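Limitations
The structure tokens in this dataset are predictions for the assembled complex, not deposited experimental models. Users should treat interface geometry with appropriate caution, especially where small molecules or nucleic acid strands are included. An illustrative entry is reproduced here so readers can see what is and is not provided.
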Amino acid sequence: MTSKLLKIGFIGGGKMAQAMAKGFISAGLSKGEAMIASCHPSDLMSHKAFKDIGAESVFENVPVVEKSEVVIISTKPSVVPIALGDIKKAGISADKLFLSIAMGVTIKQLEEFLPRQSRVIRVMPNLPALIRSGASVYVCGNKTTENDSNITKKLLESIGTCDQVTESMLDAITALSGSGPAYIYILIEALADGGVKMGLPRDLAYRLASQTVLGASKMVKETNTHPAVLKDDVTSPAGSTAAGLHFLEQQGFRAAVIGAIEVATQRCRQISQGGIN
Ligand SMILES: NC(=O)C1=CN([C@@H]2O[C@H](COP(=O)(O)OP(=O)(O)OC[C@H]3O[C@@H](n4cnc5c(N)ncnc54)[C@H](O)[C@@H]3O)[C@@H](O)[C@H]2O)C=CC1
Ligand SMILES: O=C(O)[C@@H]1CCC=N1
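Predicted assembly:
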């Protein structure tokens, strides 16, 4: 990548597009003025969000492709064929790098929706990209170059971790790290609700719950110790943690989390295999 600002376009300027755009800006990799996003005309919130960061915000998809070097496809899966249909119909030069973050939409499907010369990479980011703490993966399509892969890696590494994977892993990854923040937000909410039930003030309960998740997560990453060993370190003989863990096991906590990943993966597969709706 050259030192000049990369022109980044977003087809679909919703929650995840905004998180990535703000992450790229805070990483110093781009600026609002080098970005353009399209939204549905009814989506004035997203329209305003891109304007607020100094980007161009439009209600058509063709200018996004025309004005960008890298185009991020960030609509709902069911909207992808419609939005990319706009580009194909316009007959414009789409000799660009397209990064699709759409859940379940395969490289083969994307290549069919786009003009023939387009190069496609599938990416699965997650929402903490906003604060450059995301977990992203990417899969290169057949038409992409080494430079395309390098640009993608540089973009994704600027907003968190980045791994290159195979497309067969993407549905499970979407279920784990793509959706994962939502499960953790529920966990934080539930931890805090438990604290409040036992008499803690709400703000303290949220502060303790979120810091506990952050600290526990950092220990797994930074000590390189198996989570089961760390769990044992917390669990004193005849103590409170053992009592809490027993209750969680009785309620099927692990099974519920494992099952969530399984059904979320299946939902992605419905999109990949059974058509997009
Ligand atoms: N929200 C998340 O944490 C993550 C989302 N994703 C993927 O990102 C994509 C978008 O998800 P969200 O941002 O959550 O949804 P969202 O609903 O916030 O954003 C969708 C955007 O598409 C726009 N849109 C609708 N019709 C359009 C059209 N015809 N042309 C152009 N834009 C159009 C809407 O105005 C909206 O800005 C999905 O495919 C999802 O699978 C991937 C990883 C994480
Ligand atoms: O819920 C969804 O469909 C998207 C994919 C991963 C996170 N959000």
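Some entries come with short summary sentences. For this one: The domain at 180-271 is CATH 1.10.3730.10 (ProC C-terminal domain-like fold).
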